[in-house]
Amino acid sequence: MASIRLEKLTKKFGGFTAVDALELSVDHGEFVALLGPSGCGKTTTMNMIAGMETPTTGEIYFDERSMRDVPMGRRSVGFVFQNYAIFTRMTVHGNLSFGLRARKPRPSRQDIDQEVKRVAKIVGLSTVLDRKAASLSVNDLQKVALGRSMIVKPAIFLLDEPFSNLDAAFRAYMRAELKRLQHEIGQTMIYVTHDQVEAMSMADRIAVMNRGELQQFAPPLELYTRPANMFVAGFVGSTPINFLPAEAMPPSLLRRAANGDRRQLGIRPEYLTLVPRDAPEATIRATVRLVEPLGAKDVVHLEWNDHQMRALGRPGQRPRLGDEVGVLFNPQQVLFFDDAGRATA
Amino acid sequence: MARIRLDGVTKSFGAVTALRDISLDIADGEFFAILGPPGAGKTTLLRTIVGLETPEQGDVFADEQRITDVFPGDRNLAIMFQNLALYPDKSVFGNLAFPLKRAKVPRQEIRRRVQETAEKLHIEPLLGRKPAKLSGGERQRVALGRVLVREAGALLLDEPLSALDAMLRLEMRVELKRLQREVGRTLIYVTHDQVEAMSMPDRVAVLREGALQQVDSPENIYHRPASRFVATVIGSPPMNFIPAVAEASNGHLRVVHEQFVMESTAPVTAQRLAPGAPCFVGIRPEDIQVAVGGDGLAARIYATEPLGGETVVDVRLGDRLVKLIASPALQLSIDAEIRIQFDPSRLHVFDGDGMTVLSAGGAQGVMRLESRSRSVGDTDRPVGQ
Fold first, then answer.
1. A84/A186 same-domain check
2. What is the tens place of the pLDDT at every residue in B19-42?
3. A228 and A298 in one domain?
């Protein structure tokens, strides 16, 4: 186990600043996700923590010890990459045990075997231990990559988009497994992803990055309900948040924004309720433009005075295209942002 | 416009059978999706329709005309591949005009059609630009435009959104659906993404290892899947499957699990599910509730996955992990003991081979659920609400 602290960490590639004065503290045993679009600097940050990239300026501390002169091999970090490098001519057992066999002094065969079986069970490889890795499915290869880094019990576990090649059902399964695993072994984990569902569902805290800069560092639900700015608000949430110009909204909705600028109003789709057109409680009346059924729920696309918004609907009460409906805003859940996109209320 | 029909199409590549006896009838103007995991034969199916592959057996029809032996260029079908392949040295206008020029369409007509297509896709301001100066989403629109502009009888798209990032994919999903309604052209859409297959088309064909599993509306695929496989490929998180044992009671099907008994008014048909046979109870995560009172099945929280608007909760029910959807307002911590309830009318039953015996919605009979475990309250009290 180890804590990690990044102090004004900066990485420049020529004139391009990939990571800009990043400050971040990760506690012992914490699961932190670095989340952002491609090019936001999340992978560069992870590579610096691992020791694969040297910071231009700034410091990295593990347990308050500077890593400036510590080479990659001495940092006690385990990786899982997007491109798992598996020894295809070895068996699954051989791949999993590789890290243990390389250890000095070498553990006994029995200990290795026991450990391989334990990890194989966790990642779901027990039945294929004797198979050659070359014959495995993509899902199973990813499990081998995960299991292999798990088995050496590093102080810090770094994962770079480890699920991006997996199919949806297996990703859903692995999310729960990895979260549970982290809870059980209590290892410090840094997880790099562009998928907000992965970050939200697994991490204790999420560092949202954009263009090399930290946007917000907070627990998942805080990011969701109190985003620091419009970028964060828009990046998290499966059905995107609605942004509407505040000045166009009924005054009753604006009451909560007593302080600061209120240029944009943000409200998440689940806080818009569709009501009959003439319902007195309706905040606005909008036209149904499109319904996207997702199974458990519908995403209802609405148009109101040239503004587009999305609401969630129940499949049993699906409005028809072109219908005029009332839309009730939950006033408790309205967010406001200023000209620069910063949250103001 | 065209109705596309496949009749017993079979295709192999060496020892691998890519398509097994596929029969499909796609209506004129229909938005039709083909869904399946990688390697299911989706792309081969698409290539067979446009004529890039020749079936060993069976025939392809367009509007009742047999086109199995018709040259691809003469089929009046337009296909867009996963890899967009725009001409980098041509402007957007040039890219859109290219298929028309090749077809020797008169100049005036080309201009009119390119203009019209660009309007539909909201790319008129980009007509003078080269592809390198376009964003990912804009390029996607141009590629789509190049297929649209031909005014072919049917459009075939192979995973057109798979290269886009999540936000853009979401936008293009909406755009495609709107567009298809506007142009009213037959659209055949290949995807491995269940959200795309659920949200856009009129009907979905689920393909597995070259064989059709179910052809139905997205709603029916979701609520009345024909098999465990179909139940798994659509819905996120996927449906839960709980192993149980079938029993007959007065000729009706009873499904017995360690912790509950499910009774249905559906008759037991011996061939489908013999008494004593292993089976699976299927239930979607949104149809399981955390019981607030004392009643329900005992479960232990394995992990919680907050998503913001809702939380996926993984619980251990017996030796199985089950996913359910809960409100983020519920305080749930790992390893806590909770009770869960199912809505009995939302249960599915699958036989040992994964074929559907009973579907949610109660079409085959009313289902009743009872708790069996003594620790879970009165034995004869129904567990569902």
1. yes
2. 999 999 999 999 999 999 888 999
3. no
CB contact under 8 A, B321 and A202: no
> Domain B237-376 class?
mainly beta
B342 CB near a chain A CB, below 8 Å? no
**Which DSSP string corresponds to B233-302?**
HSSSSPPEEEEEEEEEETTEEEEE-SSEEEEEEEEPPTTT--TT-EEEEEE-GGGEEE-SSS-SEEEEEE
| pLDDT in the model for residue B363 | 45
pLDDT at B82 over 90: no
> CATH for B4-232, among 3.40.190.10, 3.40.50.300, 3.20.10.10, 3.10.620.30?
3.40.50.300
User: Which chain B residues touch A236 with a CB distance below 8 Å?
Assistant: 308
Query: What's the one-letter identity of residue A42?
Result: K
The model's confidence at residue A255, banded by pLDDT at 50, 70 and 90, is low
Beta carbon pairs, A and B, within 8 Å: 105
What type of residue is A302?
A: L
Q: How many domains does chain A have?
A: 2
Asked if B218 and B197 touch (Cβ cutoff 8 Å), the reply is: yes
Quote the minimal CA–CA distance from A51 to chain B in Å: 29
pLDDT at B4: 97
Interface of A with B (CB under 8 A): 37-38, 167-169, 172, 175-177, 179-180, 183, 194-197, 200-202, 220-221, 224-225, 234, 236-240, 268-270, 289-290, 292-296, 299, 301, 312, 315
- Specify if A343 maps to a domain: no
Pairwise pLDDT comparison (A178 vs A287), residue with the higher score: A287
CB nearest A295 (choices: B37, B234, B321): B234
Chosen from A121, A174, A210, A238 to mutate, greatest number of chain B CBs within 10 A: A238
